[in-house]
Amino acid sequence: xxxxxxxxxxxxxxxxxxxxxxxxxxxxxxxxxxxxxxxxxxxxxxxxxxxxxxxxxxxxxxxxxxxxxxxxxxxxxxxxxxxxxxxxxxxxxxxxxxxxxxxxxxxxxxxxxxxxxxxxxxxxxxxxxxxxxxxxxxxxxxxxxxxxxxxxxxxxxxxxxxxxxxxxxxxxxxxxxxxxxxxxxxxxxxxxxxxxxxxxxxxxxxxxxxxxxxxxxxxxxxxxxxxxxxxxxxxxxxxxxxxxxxxxxxxxxxxxxxxxxxxxxxxxxxxxxxxxxxxxxxxxxxxxxxxxxxxxxxxxxxxxxxxxxxxxxxxxxxxxxxxxxxxxxxxxxxxxxxxxxxxxxxxxxxxxxxxxxxxxxxxxxxxxxxxxxxxxxxxxxxxxxxxxxxxxxxxxx
Length: 397
Ligand code: F3S
Prior knowledge:
Layout: H1 5-12, H2 17-32, E1 38-40, E2 44-46, H3 51-67, E3 76-78, H4 97-110, E4 133-134, H5 137-145, H6 156-165, E5 167-169, E6 180-187, H7 195-208, E7 213-215, H8 223-237, E8 243-244, E9 254-264, H9 266-276, E10 286-290, H10 297-307, E11 312-313, E12 317-323, H11 332-340, E13 344-347, E14 362-365, H12 368-378, E15 382-384, H13 387-394, E16 395-396
Parallel strand pairs: 2-3, 2-4, 6-7, 6-9, 7-8, 10-12, 10-14, 12-13, 14-15
Antiparallel strand pairs: 1-5, 11-16
Helix pairs in contact: 1-2, 2-6, 3-4, 5-8, 7-8, 8-12, 10-11
Bound molecules: FE3-S4 cluster.
C-alpha cells in the first residue's frame, strides 16, 4: 500500500507505539479490502462506547490508550452511553455507572467532543465529498445519503485508530466507483406520509433490497422521516448509502447500467407491519420510547406540540425520550413542558445498549431501528406506531 511520508513515519513508530499500532491496524484492514492508499479524514465519530456493551476489556483498552499519552488528531465526536447523563433517576442499571464514567473520562482525556449522541451531523454538518470515519450506522447512512459525504460504517476500534492517526483506508464508499445504485425503488402515492411509514419503508428496504438503492422522487420526506428511514434500513439491512432522489447530492453517486426495480405500495407495507410489529396498545408496564436516533431541537419542538393538549400519562406507562448530552441546559423550556406531562427526557443515553431497571411488558416506538434491536437484543415485545399514535395511546387529556 502506498503511504505518504507522514504515514510512513507513523508506521515506523516515529510518532510513538500507539500511533504505530493504530496505523498498522488501518493498513491491515485496508489491504484486506483492496485499498491502495489511506485517506485523511476530517471528522471521526466513535461508536461502541457503552460499558454495558464493551465491559471491562473495552474499558481497559480505552484507559490504556489515554494513559499512554495518545490523543485524537482530528475532530472526534462520540456515541451515546448506557447511563442517563442528565442525572441518576434509577431508570438504567446503576451497576454500569462507574465503568461508564471511567470510559467517558478516558475518551475525554483523548480529546473527544463530549456530545454523546448518535446524530453527530446535527452538531457538525459534513460537507459533500468530505472523507469521514464514522461508526454508528444511522449517522453513516445520513452522512452518505443526505450530505453526500464519504464514510464506511466503521467498528468502534477502527474509529479510535482513525482518530489517533487522522486517517482511514481508501476503499468502499470513499470511492465513487463503489457508490453505484443497483436498485431503483418506487414508492406508491397511497403510502401515508409519517414517521411510522418512514420506519417501515426503511425496514422493508433493509430486508428485501441488496446493494445501493435509489428511492424515486415522489415521496415527500421531512428530515426527521429521512433519519428514521435510514436508521431502520441500516439496522435491518446494513445499508450505508440509500440514494434519495431530490435529496442526495447528484454528483455523489452513480447509477449502474443495469438496475433492478422494486415497487413498494401501502398494501405490501401494511402486510410487512403485521410481520414485524406486535399489536399496538398499552399492555402491563409499557415503555413508550421516542428518540432513536436521538431527537434534535426541531424534533423536540414537534413532540412538545403533539403533547401540549394532554395532561399526563396513563397508569404504569414510562414515556422515555432520548436526546444528545450536548443539549444539557440548552433546551430546558422544552424539557420542562414534557416533564410536566410525566415524560422523562434522558440525555446522552441509548436504551438499546443499556439495561432498563424494570423490564417493560410492552414497548411502543416510532423507530424501526429501536424495534429491530429491542426485539433481537433484549427480547422485548415491541409495537411500531407514529409519534401521534403513541401519544394518543399512552397519554390522558
Ligand atoms: Fe442512537 Fe441507540 Fe438508536 S445509538 S440510533 S438511540 S440504537
